[in-house]
Specification:
- The chain has 19 helices and 22 strands.
- The longest helix is centred in the last third of the chain and has 17 residues.
- 35% of the residues lie in helices and 23% in strands.
- The two termini are 41 Å apart.
- The radius of gyration is 27 Å and the shape is elongated.
- The protein has 3 domains: 91 residues, no CATH class; 257 residues, Vaccinia Virus protein VP39 (Rossmann fold), CATH 3.40.50; 102 residues, Outer Surface Protein A, domain 3, CATH 3.90.930.
- A 9-stranded mixed beta sheet has the order 1-11-10-9-12-13-15-14-16, sandwiched between helices. A 3-stranded antiparallel beta sheet has the order 2-4-3.
- α3 crosses α4, α4 packs antiparallel against α5 and α14 packs antiparallel against α15.
C-alpha cells in the first residue's frame, strides 16, 4: 500500500492548503531544480532504466531481485563493475538497488553530470566508512508501455525514477514508523486494476511516493494527491519534479497539474468533486493499544482505526467526493467473523445509492496475517517485540471473533442524477486473472449499464472472441454431462451451461434477437406435460443477462 490517509482521531487537524515544502527533514530536497535536472540527465545517460537494469543483471538475477533477493545481483554487478562498458551502470545499481556503499570517485565517474557532491546535496546519499558513500534512499527505475484507455484515448508509456525509503531487505533493523513505501505489490496491483479513461479531475488518496499519481497524469488533466505524512508528500514532490518531462508537468508551475495536500482521509478535499478516485489506503488491520499516538504507527499501512474501520469509512464516504458518474477504485482488507460469509461486512458498508463491486482475491487466517505484517516491517528482527506483537494480533482478532481476513479490490460509482443503482456485486475470484485487468473491469461496468438501459429480449448478441466451449461426457454416452463456457481474457470466468443455455449460445451469431432464439428453444424443448413456458422464458432470459454481464455474450 502507499502511505496513510489516517483517522482524525489519531492525527492533528488536516491542512487543506497545498503542500509546497522544498526541504522536508529526512526527505530528498526539491528546491534545487538545477541539480534535479542534472540527476535526470545523468541517470538517463548511464542507462538506468527498467530495461537497462534487466539487461545488465540477466534474467535469473533480475527475477531474484524482484523477490528482494540481492545476492545474485551482487555477484553479477561485481563482475560488471570491472568492465568499462558496464562499470557506470553497475555502480548505480549497486548503490541504490543493492544498498552497497560505493567510492565517491566511482560515483563521480558514473554520474559526471551531478557527482557525489550533488547527490549528497539532494539528500540521496550520505557518508559511510572511510571514503565510501551509501544510499540514503531507494532510487529505482520504473515505467510502463503505451496503453489505450477504456474510452479509446491512447496513453503514452513512461520511463521514470522513483525515490522512497530503503526497504527492509536493504537496511538493518525495524522500519521507521514514518517509512515511505516504494514500488510494492499492492501499488502495482492498484495500477493494474484501475480502469483508465480521460478525466478532468482525479484524486490519489494516500499517495505515498506517488505511484498512482504518475499513472493518473497520463489520462487526467489535474491530479490532487493527499497524504497524512509530510515525508511522503516530499518524496512525491521530488519524484514529480525529477520526472517532470515524462509526466508532462512544468517544474516551475507544478500546481497547474498536481496539487499536493497534507491531511487525513477526505478532509483535505472536503467540498470538492472528482471524476476518478484511486486509493491504496493504509488498510492493514493493526491491534490498537492504550495511549498510542501517530508516532507509534507505521503510517504507510496503519490507518489508526480499530479493525477494518479505515476501509469501511472509505467505502461509505468516498461517494461524497465523486462527481455524478464518477468512480473510485481502491484496495482493502476486511474481517470475516466466524460462521459468517466473507461478504457480510462489505455488504453492510455499501450505500444503497451508490454502485458497488467487491472482488475478494485472497483470504488468510489471523496467524498468517500477523506473520505477514510483522515481517513486512522487519519486526521479526527483534525477538521480544515479535512475540509481543504476534500475541497482540491474535488477542485483537479473538476479541471480535475474527476467523479470517479478506483482501481484494473495491469499485464504487456515484450514479448520474436521477439514475438508480446498477451494480451491487460481491464475488470471490482467487484464481489467476489477466493483467492489467482494469480495461476488463471498465468493460464489465459498461455492459451492466447497457443491460440497465436496453430491452434484452429485443437485442442481437454475439459470442465474445475469447470464449470457448468445453464438453465432457462419459465414453459411449449420447449427450455430454457437463458443458462449460470459458473466457480466455479478463477475469477468465467459467460458466456451467444448461442444455437450453448451451443451445442459446450456439445460436448467437447476431441474426436473431434474444427473444426469437428463446422462442425457438421453447418450441423445441417444451410442450411436455407440466412445462411452464413463462417460467422457461424468464429463467433463460435471466441466464442470458448474466452471460452478457460477464462478457461471454456481447451486443451485436
Amino acid at each position: 500500500m502507499t502511505s496513510s490517509a489516517q483517522s482524525p482521531a489519531t492525527q492533528a487537524p488536516s491542512i487543506k492548503a497545498p503542500f509546497t515544502a522544498g526541504n522536508t527533514p529526512e526527505a530528498p530536497r526539491t528546491d534545487l531544480p538545477g541539480l534535479l535536472g542534472a540527476l535526470a540527465g545523468a541517470l538517463r545517460a548511464v542507462g538506468y532504466t527498467v530495461d537497462g537494469v534487466a539487461e545488465l543483471l540477466g534474467e535469473a538475477a533480475h527475477e531474484a531481485l524482484s523477490r528482494d533477493q540481492l545476492i545474485p545481483a551482487l555477484i553479477v554487478t561485481r563482475r560488471a563493475a570491472g568492465e568499462p562498458a558496464t562499470a557506470a551502470l553497475a555502480a548505480v545499481v549497486r548503490l541504490w538497488l543493492l544498498a552497497e556503499p560505493q567510492r565517491a570517485e566511482t560515483l563521480d565517474a558514473a554520474l559526471p553530470g551531478i557527482g557525489t557532491e550533488g547527490l549528497m546535496e539532494l539528500g540521496l546519499v550520505e557518508p559511510s566508512d572511510a571514503d565510501l558513500v551509501q544510499a540514503k534512499v531507494d532510487l529505482r527505475p520504473y515505467g510502463w508501455d503505451a496503453t489505450q484507455g477504456d474510452d479509446g484515448v491512447a496513453g503514452g508509456g513512461a520511463d521514470l525514477w522513483v525515490a522512497s525509503d530503503l526497504a527492509a531487505h536493504q537496511r538493518a533493523g525495524v522500519l521507521r514508523h514514518d517509512h515511505v513505501l516504494g514500488i510494492g505489490q499492492a501499488s502495482t496491483t492498484l495500477v493494474q486494476v484501475t480502469a483508465r479513461r480521460h478525466v478532468a479531475k482525479a484524486l490519489d488518496l494516500g499517495t505515498g511516493c506517488g505511484i498512482q499519481t504518475f499513472h493518473l497524469l497520463h489520462h487526467a488533466e489535474h491530479v490532487t494527491a493527499t497524504d497524512i505524512s509530510e515525508r511522503a508528500l516530499a518524496f512525491t514532490r521530488f519524484n514529480l519534479l525529477l520526472n517532470a518531462a515524462e509526466l508532462h508537468v512544468d517544474p516551475a508551475d507544478l500546481d497547474a497539474r498536481v496539487s499536493l495536500r497534507l491531511g487525513s482521509l477526505l478532509e483535505p478535499v472536503a467540498g470538492e468533486k472528482f471524476e476518478l478516485v484511486v486509493s491504496n489506503p493504509p488498510f492493514v488491520i493493526t491491534p490498537r493499544s492504550p495511549g498510542e499516538t501517530a508516532t507509534d504507527q507505521f503510517t504507510y499501512r496503519d490507518g489508526g482505526l480499530p479493525g477494518d474501520d479505515i476501509v469501511a469509512s472509505l467505502v461509505r464516504d468516498l461517494p461524497s467526493v465523486l462527481a455524478p458518474e464518477g468512480t473510485a477504485q481502491l484496495l482493502g482488507n476486511w474481517e470475516i467473523t466466524a460462521g459468517a460469509g466473507w461478504d457480510e461486512r462489505p455488504r453492510s458498508w455499501a450505500r444503497p445509492a451508490a454502485d458497488v463491486w467487491f472482488i475478494q482475491r485472497e483470504q488468510v487466517g489471523p496467524e498468517q496475517y500477523a506473520e505477514t505484517w510483522l515481517q513486512d516491517a522487519s519486526e521479526n528482527r527483534d525477538r521480544k517485540l515479535y512475540q509481543d506483537s504476534y500475541a497482540a494480533y491474535l488477542d485483537d482478532f479473538a476479541a471480535r471473533d475474527v476467523a479470517g481476513i479478506g483482501f481484494g479490490m473495491i469499485w464504487l460509482r456515484r450514479p448520474a442524477e436521477g439514475a438508480g443503482q446498477v451494480l451491487s456485486r460481491f464475488e470471490e475470484i482467487t484464481y489467476p486473472i489477466e493483467q492489467p485487468v482494469g480495461p476488463h473491469l471498465g468493460a464489465a461496468v459498461e455492459r451492466a449499464d447497457w443491460l440497465a438501459a436496453h430491452d434484452l429480449a429485443a437485442a442481437h448478441l454475439l459470442v465474445a472472441e475469447d470464449v470457448t466451449e468445453e464438453r465432457h461426457q462419459r465414453p459411449g454416452a449420447e449427450h455430454p454431462g457437463v458443458i462449460l463456457l470459458r473466457q480466455g481474457a479478463g477475469l477468465r470466468r467459467t460458466n456451467l451451461l444448461s442444455t437450453e443455455l448451451a443451445g442459446f449460445v450456439s445460436a448467437c451469431d447476431g441474426d436473431l434477437s434474444v427473444g426469437q432464439i428463446i422462442g425457438a428453444l421453447e418450441a423445441l424443448l417444451g410442450g411436455y406435460e407440466g412445462f411452464d413456458g413463462a417460467q422457461f422464458r424468464a429463467g433463460l432470459l435471466a441466464e442470458v443477462g448474466n452471460l452478457v454481464r460477464d462478457g461471454f455474450l456481447l451486443p451485436a
